[in-house]
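User: Please predict the structure of the protein below. I'd like the answer in structure-token form so I can feed it into my own downstream comparison script.

Assistant: Understood. Taking the following sequence of 157 residues as input:
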Amino acid sequence: MPIVLIRVDDRLVHGQILEGWLPSTRAEELLIANDALAEDDLQKMIMESAIPYSVSLVIDSVDKIAAILLDENLSQTRRMVIVDNPVDALRLRKAGVDFDSLNLGNIVEPEYKACLSRSVALGEECLSALREIMEEGIKISIQSVPFEKAVELNCIR
């Protein structure tokens, strides 16, 4: 189960993913863990049409993506995982998905409590989830695109 990147990005599939992260990580499979999107056939079809043929795409609920990652832990497929919020990243972790770093890309909640960067503004529930992830020793960084310098979070208040 080589997870090459776990990213929190509320836009899910967009240019930064397609032109930046997929090529830089050399991901062979993109897994999108999102409960609402898993039920939306039209949006899934739109996202599928944007993904290069060389990358397989799996869109499913957070629980089902966790099960896939756990069931296929011997697979050598290079995987990139995207969730749209830190709460779902924590759900993956609590389900047993092992990762040692978390990339924050674009997350702007309308009722934000803390603005961590120009592209990351979070409410209390997401901040709490990040604190819990950080307490487990997971490195959290903000980085919109691969060629941008990552900014590590040392604490979240």
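That's the full token string. The beta strands are 3-8, 29-33, 56-60, 79-83, 101-104, 107-108, 114-117, 120-122, 139-142, 151-152.
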